[in-house]
Amino acid sequence: MSSGPDFIEKKHLTLFLFVVALFFFWGVALTLGDVLNRHFQNVLHISKSRSGLVQLAMFGAYAVMGIPAGIFLKRFGYKNGVLLGLFLYAGGAFLFIPAADARSFDFFLLALFILACGLATLETVAHPLAAVLGPESTSDRRINFCQAFNGLGGVIGPALGSFFMLKAAEGQPSELITVKNLYLVIGAVISMAGLAFLFIRIPASLTDHSEKTSIYLPDTPNGYSGGLIHQKHFLFAVAAQFFNVAAQGGTWAYFINYGHEVMHFTDEKAGYFFSLSIAMLMVGRFTGTALMRFIAPSRLLSIFALANVLMCLIVAQGAGWVSFIALLSINFFFSIMFPTIFSLGLKNLGGNVQQGSSFLVMGVVGGGLFPPLMGLVANHSVAKAYYLPVVCYLVIFAFGYFYPRLVKRAKT
């Protein structure tokens, strides 16, 4: 057991635990956005396609903030990057208070955009930071482990939203006080986390990306020099991440609608099932982390992508519990996709790792563009809308399948 590479360097354990907490924090915020999608339909009386702007505001922030966050990280370091992310996260949450008072959907979108700029900054910082806190050979497992706690936050987010928002909306459809109070608490918690992080020390050695973060491709001990444009595995990773988060954004945005319209659940009950599906995502990440000890991450990625092609085809049939169980299962197979694509994309970037991280974060904009498109189909049939993510999972399958060949080409 002791002969294998360490999962985490012991001297970085405290810092690693805080990084895990960051993954948890943005998991709560992202899945709460999907509950808000349905809540705004009920309270502000907007269509499914217009409510999809919730995802556009959140994931669109990733496209806007990705490059600036990478530049900020490179210039000011990990610690200031985390503090900036937490500041924007808390600031956006506090803006929910005047937005609720104004009963303005556009104001809510602005608050979500600022909050999501904080999430984009945290993701830009946290992924490479998690990667360098141990041997490069275990970076895939380490990022998947952190993402498992992102999944835990994703379980708590819709559970909170369903209890405090959707339940209240059924009794008092014009009420937004629960939204205001919930985000007030979230803003306070994130602010306290920022104050706590002021006392966390990040060793200067971790900022030396010329050596420490030269995350090489498998079996390539000397790495491969060259800019990002020459790293074909990285370019494919950015495209795969775009379609990956597109599938995630669309699947999650209309989950509650599917439960309500196809399964005839109340919104609150559908929200709890959404929380269960995120729990399956968390289980999938722990399972995937374990399986990667025996199966190459790229191969496991392609297997899970094909599984989700099948799940989406079953969901689109609207065949009662069979289709709904397939909808729940999508998150299990989706689980490893974001962290694995991110980790595989970062390999071999050396001194470009921060810039590469920012581009991979920008790929998240797919989650903002896809839900309004799915919403146009969902306005007529929410079940049929689930045909669209099939295209996304086929792209992810192709990335996982061709990744070893891209590695071989880079070595030559």
Automatic annotation (TrEMBL):
Keywords for this protein: Cell membrane, Membrane, Transmembrane, Transmembrane helix
One Pfam family hit: MFS_1
Keyword Transit peptide attributed: no
All copies of domain Major facilitator superfamily (MFS) profile, residue ranges: 13-408
Membrane topology summary: Multi-pass membrane protein
Tree of life domain: Bacteria
Subcellular location: Cell inner membrane
SUPFAM superfamilies: MFS general substrate transporter
The keyword ATP-binding belongs to this UniProt entry's keyword annotation: no
GO-annotated molecular function: fucose:proton symporter activity
InterPro entries for this protein: Lfuc_symporter_FucP, MFS, MFS_dom, MFS_trans_sf, MFS_TsgA-like
Gene Ontology CC, one term: plasma membrane
Segments passing through the bilayer: 12-33, 53-73, 80-101, 107-133, 145-169, 181-200, 234-255, 270-288, 300-319, 325-346, 358-379, 385-403
PANTHER family: L-FUCOSE-PROTON SYMPORTER, PROTEIN TSGA
Stated name of the protein: L-fucose:H+ symporter permease
Lineage: Bacteria, Pseudomonadati, Bacteroidota, Sphingobacteriia, Sphingobacteriales
